[in-house]
What we know:
The protein is mainly β. It has no helices and 13 strands.
Amino acid sequence: MWCSALLGAVLAFGADPVRAGAWNQSKGQxxxxxxxxxxxxxxxxxxxxxxxxxxxxxxxxxVSLWAEYGLSERVTLLLKTDWQDADDGVRSYRGIGPTExxxxxxxxxxxxxxxxxxxxxxxDSQGRNAAWGSPGEGAQELDIRLLAGHTFTKGRRAKFVEVxxxxxxxxxxxxxxxxxxxxxxxxxxxxxxxSQIYAGQGDEEAGDKxxxxxxxxxxxxxxxxxxxxxxxxxxxxxxxxxxxxxGPIVALWRRF
Length: 256
């Protein structure tokens, strides 16, 4: 989730769990996540989904901060903001991006299965709020999503899956629907492998096809004490009216 950016759905368990997505923070506990995402887009997908080379390469650098805090055993408070440096050869922006605030309520916890509902509000920003939009567009946004996760503890290595279904309403940009999924395997108390998919489609407006995207990500997380670090790679493998960008992902967690 979080316009791509943001964190999306990340879940990893080490000796001391890192929790996100459908899994809530415990009361009085939380975590901070700092993520750096450079994205290079030489190609783009047209309105028919065909890939072509752009006249100007687009380069985005985003440093984001995501915070979670357990208000109770079932309610977690959320905060996200970022700093952007983006240039597509025509428009550029450098500065603070949108601020997103909200909460997640875990309404189900049965055995190894959990489910939550989450709502976040995106405040005004001069930055880029959507990958296909221009800086300053889509300033006011509301995101509501359903999240569900399950862990598998049988066998030598624990595994987990998580799925999110989201609807995002935007000001001055088309609304969109998203499906995001994460699968992971714990190689040990110190290492977790992650595979993630981000898919979505913007609404059709006045007969005009909305944007569509399918992005894949793979990475690994290293845990130690109250810290975790992630290194991965993300690429947009299919789409419509969006850039075919790819680049590395570097993130650092701190639990408190």
